[in-house]
Amino acid sequence: MRELRIVLLILVISLPSFSASDRQGDALYDMKKKLNATGSQLSDWNPNQVNPCTWNSVICDSNNNVVTVTLAARGFTGVLSTRIGELEYLTVLSLAGNKITGGIPQQFGNLSSLTSLDLEGNLLGGEIPASLGQLSRLQLLILSENNFDGPIPESLAKISSLTDIRLASNNLSGQIPDPLFQVARYNFSGNHLNCGTNLPLPCASNISYPSGSHSSKVGIILGAVGGLIGLLIVVVLFLFCKGRKKRNLREVFVDVPVKKMFLDREVLGKSTKEFFQMEQRLL
Hints:
Blueprint: H1 2-34, E1 58-60, E2 66-70, E3 92-94, E4 116-118, E5 125-126, E6 140-142, E7 147-150, E8 164-166, E9 171-174, E10 185-187, E11 192-193, H2 214-282
Parallel strand pairs: 2-3, 3-4, 4-6, 5-7, 6-8, 7-9, 8-10, 9-11
Antiparallel strand pairs: 1-2
């Protein structure tokens, strides 16, 4: 009887965790369907599994709460699921470099733990929802290279934790909330906003992005490869020269004893001959 009570207690304690995992798994699976993922894309996202923490591109914390979802450059063509807003422990969401259409659901404002949202390089449009201003922990917001229009929501200026905001290359218009110019890194270029040439404030901050652009990454890689090749050439030349030097020294050391041997024999022979001549005179 005691053992049965222990088992029941364990089940009761574990029930909320299983329930949360089910809810998170359902939300992620709905996101997969809404993104029009093909059979080969996210094939291990199985709705029959209790825990989504084993799924590709999903990271969970020690309590099996989904905290990171990174699905950049996967070729998705669908829309964003409203159920993403149910992932209350999500801190990082990246869907950059796809072909996602539609808009950002208002429910994204429910992601109270979110610190990084990257939707760059899609086909998203409409207005940026004011509900994003509820993301009080958000540090990185990247919505560049989409088709967003209308004004920048004033609510974004209330996110005191924001350190990097990129809204470049959209169809945004109107006034940029003044506090957003105080963000450490910002980029509003490529829109119809109150910044840029002949205006008091620049459309982009002077602080470069730590990750750098694509071309700079390529340059760094090529530079590293070139440096490595140069180093290998220097090493090969050094070993070649060192090998030749050793070979020359060996030839010198071998040649000297041989010459010395012939010289000694010649001197010895000459001395012997003179000795015999002297002996014959004395006789």
